[in-house]
Each structure stands twice: as C-alpha cells, then as structure tokens.
Amino acid sequence: MNLKAVVWVTFLTAQCAFPILCFGPVSGIAAGIAGIGSLIHVGIQTLKCRVMVCCDKSQIHLDFDGLQRNLSHKLHGQHLVQKAVLGHIKGHFDSIDPHKALVLSFHGLTGVGKNFVSRIIADNLYKDGFHSPFVHLISATKEFPHEGMLPFYKDNLKRWIEGNVTKCERSMFIFDEVDKLPSSLLDVIKPYTDHYEHLGGVSYRKAVFIFLSNAGGTEIGRLAFEHWQSGKKREDLRLSDIENSIMLSVINADNHNGLYHSQLISNHLITSFIPFLPLEKEHVRACITDDIVKKYRWHFRNRHEVPEEYVDEVIQELNFYPAAEQIFSVTGCKRVSEKVDFVMIDKVLPKRKSGEL
C-alpha cells in the first residue's frame, strides 16, 4: 500500500464513528470494478463468437419439435426409428449431466434412411447442420482405406476425437460404413463412450456417436418379411422384437469387421441398436412424391398435386423383392432421385396462372 492510500484510510477511520459505513463506498467501487471486468469479459467473448464459431446456444439450438416433425413427415416407413431416435436424443440433450456419451447404432440395407436420419438429427440440433464444425462425418472406406496403416489410423482417430470434444463437449461423430471398419479400430472409441467422469481432464459424456451399418440388414429384412407373411401390420413390430437379433447378427458377422466382437458391445456401451426396416412400395412412392415436389416446387406446391401417373412411371424403373411378392424395394429410396430425373425430363409440366406462387 502506498503513502497516499495509508493517509486516506487513516483519515476515513478518524472521521467515522462506524468505519464500515465509510468503507462501504470503497467496497462498492471495488464491486463496480469487478462488475465492469465481468462485462468486459462477456463483451470480449461475444465479440469472439461473432468472429469465430463458439460451442454455445448460438450454434447448438436443440430444436426437438423440429426433429419430431421432420422424422414424422420426411422419414417414411420407419416407425421404430422415429420413436427410438427422438427419445434417445431428447433424453441425452435434456440431461445436465448424462452418465455417458450417447451411442446409437443404425442398421439396415441400403437406401432405407440411415444417412438421411443422421442429417435430420444434425439439422435440428446444430445451426449449420452437417456443415457445423461440431458435426463430424467419417466414411470408413475414405478415411481408413489401407489395412497396413491401422496403427497410424488408431492414433489419428484418438487425437481427432479428443481434439474435437475439447473444443465442444456437444460434438457429434457419425461413422458411415461401420461394417467395413476393422473392429480393433472401433475399440479406440471405447474409452470416450464409457462412464468415465473425465479422461485427461475432459468429459466426453455429452458427446454423440452414431454408427451407420449395413450389418444386420439381411436379418431385419427376413424378420420384416415373416411379419408381413403372418398378416400383421408393419406398425405392430416393436424395437424389442428386432434389437437382439441385430446384435447377434453383428457379433457373428462373417467379415469380422465393424462391431464384430468389439469392446463397444462386450462392455454394453451401445445405447441402442436401431433397425431400419426395408421399404415397401407405398414408402417408395412417398419418397418419389417428395423428390418431385422438391425439384419442381414451382409446378407442384404440395404432394397432393403430383400426378399419380408420374409416380407410377418412376416406380416402374425400380426393383422389388421377393420375386413373386414384389414387396420390398431392393435399393430403398436411394435411386429415387436419379429415376425422377430420368422420368421427368420429357414431361410437359402444368403452367401456373399469373400471380400464383
């Protein structure tokens, strides 16, 4: 304390019967300075987040109503997926302190909506959806093509997950073509999905891991066909009817890749195995109609305006199985967009009247 400060304190003490009352303004000044400091910090942080992308509410908006609406209206024929995805996502993000990272494993044949649902999730949880710096899509065949480089891949994957979660605890990792990944590579992920409170001072409990896999798709198709043969409604199928069959199919996979004997399974770290059922003709028709409205929105304002004959022509370009019954689409909705382009290219579309939107 300098000489001026000593003189000032001595003077105040001499003048005041109750020094605490006199020192109140001094305390107030100190509090004011602290408050100004806090405001400056907030201001700097706000300015920083305008220049850079921050892991806060401006980027992670958690639109659960939008998620439910999109799953209900845009995803066709997947009642099991709608309920399971919404329930697990909402439960995990609503929790202030989840016990572990959310790990969802999507299973089904090609074209049934696995990638589509992961995109819907990202679009409704992150401001920039798939383009958010906190959403990470990893393709097995693109990122890990060489078996001989497995030690290198393991080290990179470990550092990559740690780096991204350190930047944002609400990071989402989507692994596509998991059935083509060496199972030992997936074991690298195990610690980050476990119940540890911290690893190296970082909590991974709020992160989300989504695995997309064709493994188990054949088994799901078999169960769906048997259910159809029995005359039961598709919507009567329950997750519990299929989930265990998926897990057994994945564990006993012939190629020994993906989740085969993975520590993620042996340690029960998969939150849910979610089956995507093969799509029937009515579901493919809905996909066709959606695609036509999306591409020709100036001609068809809603699904009901799309002529049935247009949809019929596209259906004729797609294949269904079994050969006799022709129930399920071989490629789901995957080839719908290109077949819509093929059929619609020579159509004379109805013209809108002047003034119509």
TrEMBL record:
- Name one process (GO BP) from the record: cellular response to misfolded protein
ATP-binding as a keyword?
yes
Q: Name the major location.
A: endoplasmic reticulum
GO CC annotation, single: endoplasmic reticulum lumen
Which InterPro entries does the UniProt record give?
ClpA/B, P-loop_NTPase, TOR1A_C, Torsin
Q: Which compartments does it reside in? A: Endoplasmic reticulum lumen
Q: Which GO terms describe its molecular function?
A: ATP binding; ATP hydrolysis activity
Q: Does the keyword Glycoprotein apply?
A: yes
Annotated Torsin-1A C-terminal domain residues: 279-342
Q: Name one Pfam family in it.
A: Torsin
Keywords, sorted A to Z: ATP-binding, Endoplasmic reticulum, Glycoprotein, Nucleotide-binding, Signal
Q: Which family does it belong to?
A: Belongs to the ClpA/ClpB family. Torsin subfamily.
Question: Cross-referenced PANTHER family, in alphabetical order?
Answer: LD13476P-RELATED, TORSIN
UniProt-recorded name of the protein:
Torsin-like protein
